[in-house]
Amino acid sequence: MSFEDIPVDIGVVYEGERVRGKDMFVELGGPKMEQKFELAIARDMGDIEDEKVTIIGPDLKDMEEGSYHPLGIVVEVAGKEIEPDLEGVIERRIHEYVNFVEGMMHLNQRYDIWLRLSKKSFEKGFNSFDFLGKVLMRLFKSEMNIIERIQVTFITDPEVVAERYDDAINRYNQRDERARGLSDTEVDTFYGCSLCQSFAPTHVCTITPQRYANCGAISWFDGRAAARVDPKGPLYAIPKGETIDEFRGEYVGVNQAYTEKSLGKVNSVALYSAFEKPHTSCGCFEAIAFVIPEVDGLGIVHRDFKGDTVNGLPFSSMADSTAGGRQVPGFHGISIEYMRSPKFLQVDDGWNRIVWVPQSVMERIVDFIPEDVRDRIATENDAMNIGDLKEFLKQKSHPVVNRWVELEEEAEAAVLAADAGTDYIAVPGEMTAMVGGVGGGLEIIFKNAKIYAEKVIIRRTGKGDKKK
Ligand code: SF4
């Protein structure tokens, strides 16, 4: 495969390259644009004009330096083995291949795409979507040999992006709805995806019928289709193996896959928990479930939420604490579709533990939240700080309020035990303590420990704090 006619370098080495605001020539999609999308569509052979690139709207060379534009990318493919179940997987590769281009950054997926082209690459001559189309088509054909014909369309005309956006959303919804008919107990194979290991080397997505991939772009059906046509590719079958705990979503086969694919860094995962051995988080998650210790509940924030959340932190700060392929108890990357699953965080009490959700997410998933808790969950319209959140939850008798009573009773019992002469905290089994919290820190694991301490001081520290 040759890229000699492309004015910039193309290669894996550019994956993970960031284009900062000051270095960018243009931004396409991203948070400043309401409507943007990328879509793969399986077509019949006769419907594709092979290797054709279409540009609808201003091309890169027509754009002003530093400007922002909406974007739609449509990749249409055909081949004897191409089927609609492969659309999600082909679509997800757009992210990977655009990032192979020197000076191009591609983030996220589906209706969330965010691209930047650097000034340097533009100055080198990468001034047309035609180049990007050629790169995509060559990479797709060489990496996925089931693709026999391909054509790519770039849309930057705001009116046409808006027109096609609704069709894209309908197609995503249809894919997601199809995957909702199956439960995790009905299948003996899950699927794994390691596509994001170039950004997060220990990350593995385990895609089950009821736990959609973190990026929200790949369903169990998509994983199955991809593993069938390319079993050695980044999507592969994970035989469930022996069930360790069905409620928690612990399986011998899943643990083995993690051990193997994370090179021993992650060995045990409970698929339906945000706290105990949670599924790893790369950086492509659509949303984060984050602990709000003051109310013993979980909040949710999605990528498009602007500004601070109820705990005073924006999505971006919490994303730093969540991402990287780690298992971070209480900071858990998830997809929007997983929130529609009956297994959603069931180990942690599911929706009964969720206390705060952005209004726009609420509107998308409201029909999947159990009716008895639906109106007891706050949005930004009800609470934007912890004090107001507490009041709201108390007023609405949210289920977490019962947990506060239980916690108080436990604390009281602990004081009584201390008064009675017990001078240690017993830790039967395993307990994980986070030191450092948001922004990074240490994780300390206690196994069958007894902790003796005269005094425990928990102190908030910051960059400017002096040690006392
Ligand atoms: S988030 Fe998961 S499923 Fe999606 S591309 Fe990354 S590894 Fe694959």
List keywords for this structure.
468 residues; four-stranded mixed β-sheet; 11 helices; binds iron/sulfur cluster
Walk me through this protein's architecture.
26% of the residues lie in helices and 22% in strands. It is α+β, with helices and mostly antiparallel strands and 468 residues long. The chain has a four-stranded mixed β-sheet with strand order 4-1-7-6. A four-stranded mixed β-sheet has the order 2-5-8-3, with helices on both faces. Strands 16-14-15-17 form a four-stranded mixed β-sheet, covered by helices on one side. A hairpin with a 4-residue loop joins strand 12 (243-245) and strand 13 (250-251). Bound molecules: iron/sulfur cluster. Iron/sulfur cluster binds at residues 92, 193, 195-196, 205, 213-215, 217-218, 282, 284.
Topology:
Blueprint: E1 24-29, E2 36-42, E3 52-56, E4 67-69, E5 71-78, H1 87-98, E6 104-107, E7 114-118, H2 119-123, H3 129-143, E8 149-155, H4 158-179, E9 189-193, E10 205-207, H5 220-229, E11 235-239, E12 243-245, E13 250-251, H6 252-261, E14 287-292, E15 297-302, H7 315-322, E16 331-334, E17 354-356, H8 359-365, H9 371-374, H10 386-395, H11 400-419, E18 425-435, E19 442-451
Parallel strand pairs: 1-4, 2-5, 3-8, 15-17
Antiparallel strand pairs: 1-7, 5-8, 6-7, 9-10, 9-11, 12-13, 14-15, 14-16, 18-19
Helix pairs in contact: 1-3
The structure holds iron/sulfur cluster (SF4).
Iron/sulfur cluster is lined by residues 92, 193, 195-196, 205, 213-215, 217-218, 282, 284.
What is the helical fraction, as a range of percent? 25-40%
Largest sheet, strands/sense/barrel? 4 strands, mixed
Report low-confidence residues grouped into runs of 5 or more: 435-442, 459-468
Count the helices. How many?
A: 11
CATH homologous superfamily caption of the largest domain: Bifunctional carbon monoxide dehydrogenase/acetyl-coa synthase(codh/acs), Chain M, domain 5
Q: Give me the CATH architecture of the largest domain, please.
A: 3-Layer(aba) Sandwich
Instruction: Give the ligands present.
Output: iron/sulfur cluster
Distance linking N and C termini: 62 Å
**Cα-atom radius of gyration:** 24 Å
Protein structure class? alpha+beta
Q: What is the spatial order of strands in the main beta sheet?
A: 4-1-7-6
Provide the domain count.
2
CATH-defined fold name of the largest domain: Bifunctional carbon monoxide dehydrogenase/acetyl-coa synthase(codh/acs), Chain M, domain 5
Regarding CATH, which class of the largest domain?
Alpha Beta
Order of helices and strands: EEEEEHEEHHEHEEHEEEHEEHEEHHHHEE
